[in-house]
Design brief:
Blueprint lengths: L1 H18 L2 H24 L19 H4 L4 H16 L8 H24 L11 H21 L3 H9 L2 H17 L10 H5 L4 H4 L2 E6 L2 E6 H16 L1 H19 L5 H20 L10
Helix pairs in contact: 1-2, 2-4, 4-5, 5-6, 11-12, 11-13
Length: 293
C-alpha cells in the first residue's frame, strides 16, 4: 500500500520544493492522485476483466482489447506528462506543442477505451460506478484538448501527425488482442471459482471430500461445493433468465477473486465466510436435480 503512494508523493514533492510551499504540496498531491494515479490504476487493473475462456468473450477478440490496449501505454504516459506539466507543475507556457498534443492523444485513447468498456461490459454485467473514472478522464481530456487546440492555434498538420504516430500502436493492440483471444481455452473452466478455491484450505477444516462424476471425469468435492452446485441447478431450472445474468457477472468477478486465494489460511477464511450461505441453502427446500455447473 505504501509503495502505491510513493510515485504520487514524489510527483507532489517536486513542485512543493520548487515553490517552497506546503500548500502547493497538498494541492499537487490531490491533483496527482485524481489526474494520474486513479486513471493509471484503472487503465492497468482493467486487464483483470479479461474472461477466462472464449465463450465468455461476448465480442470475440474485441473483448480482449482490455489487454491489447497496453500497447497504447506510451501515449498514456505522454498524456499524463502533459497533464502534470500543465496542472501540477504549472508550466510557464501551457500551450507548448508537446503539451497540447499530449492532451490530444490522451483524448483519443481515453475516449476509445471508454467506448470499448461500455460496449463490452454493459451495465447488465457491471454497475456504472467502475466507469466513473474512465468517463471523467475521457471528458476532461476531450474538453481540455479542444480548448488548448483552439487557444494555441495549433495547425491541422501537427494534429494529424500526432494521430498518425499512434497507428503502429493501434495495429499492435489489435494484433495482441487477437493473440490473447486465440490463446484462451475453448471450453469453460471446470471450476466454480471461489467455492472451489476455498477447498484448497486445510483438509481437516474444509473436508471431508467425496468423489463425484462430473463431465465424464471423477472429481473430489466437499459438501459446501456440492450444496452450491445443487442450488445453482435448481436456480437455473426455475429462473433461467435471472440465473444467466447472475452467472455472467460471476464468470467475470469469480476468477478475479479466486486467483487471489493462494494460501491455505486464506482458503480457510473464505470457506468459513461461505458457511452462513451454505447453511441457508441447506435449510431451503428445493428439488435436487442432477448436478451441473
Amino acid at each position: 500500500m505504501i509503495g502505491a503512494w510513493l510515485p504520487a508523493l514524489a510527483l507532489s514533492i517536486a513542485p512543493a520544493i520548487y515553490r517552497r510551499s506546503w500548500k502547493v504540496f497538498f494541492l499537487s498531491l490531490l491533483r496527482v492522485v485524481m489526474g494520474i494515479t486513479l486513471p493509471v490504476y484503472w487503465f492497468l487493473l482493467s486487464v483483470e476483466l479479461l474472461p477466462d475462456w472464449k465463450g465468455a468473450c461476448t465480442h470475440g477478440a474485441f473483448t480482449c482489447f482490455v489487454v491489447g490496449k497496453l500497447w497504447l501505454s506510451p501515449f498514456v504516459v505522454w498524456a499524463l506528462a502533459a497533464y502534470y506539466a500543465r496542472v501540477v507543475w504549472k508550466a510557464d507556457s501551457p500551450h507548448k506543442t508537446w503539451i497540447v498534443l499530449g492532451y490530444w492523444v490522451g483524448a483519443i485513447v481515453s475516449v476509445t477505451c471508454l467506448i470499448h468498456g461500455l460496449i463490452v461490459f454493459p451495465r447488465a454485467l457491471i454497475p456504472i460506478w467502475p466507469f466513473l473514472v474512465p468517463i471523467l478522464t475521457a471528458i476532461y481530456f476531450s474538453v481540455v484538448a479542444r480548448r488548448l487546440v483552439r487557444e494555441s492555434g495549433l495547425g491541422f498538420t501537427k494534429l494529424l501527425a500526432a494521430t498518425l504516430s499512434m497507428v503502429p500502436s493501434w495495429v499492435l493492440s489489435v494484433w495482441h488482442s487477437k493473440r490473447v483471444f486465440d490463446a484462451l481455452p475453448s471450453e469453460a473452466p471446470q471450476d466454480c471459482f471461489v467455492v472451489t478455491a476455498a477447498m484448497r484450505g486445510h483438509a481437516s477444516l474444509v473436508g471431508p471430500f467425496h468423489p463425484i462424476q462430473r463431465r465424464g471425469q471423477e472429481r473430489l468435492i466437499n459438501d459446501q461445493l456440492q450444496t452450491f452446485w445443487e442450488f445453482e441447478t435448481f436456480w437455473a431450472a426455475r429462473m433461467p433468465r435471472l440465473h444467466r445474468v447472475a452467472r455472467r457477472i460471476y464468470n467475470r468477478l469469480g476468477p478475479y477473486v479466486a486467483r487471489r486465494i493462494t494460501r491455505r489460511w486464506v482458503a480457510d477464511v473464505v470457506y468459513l465466510s461461505l458457511k452462513p450461505a451454505e447453511w441457508t441453502l441447506r435449510a431451503l427446500k428445493w428439488k435436487k436435480e442432477s448436478v451441473h455447473c
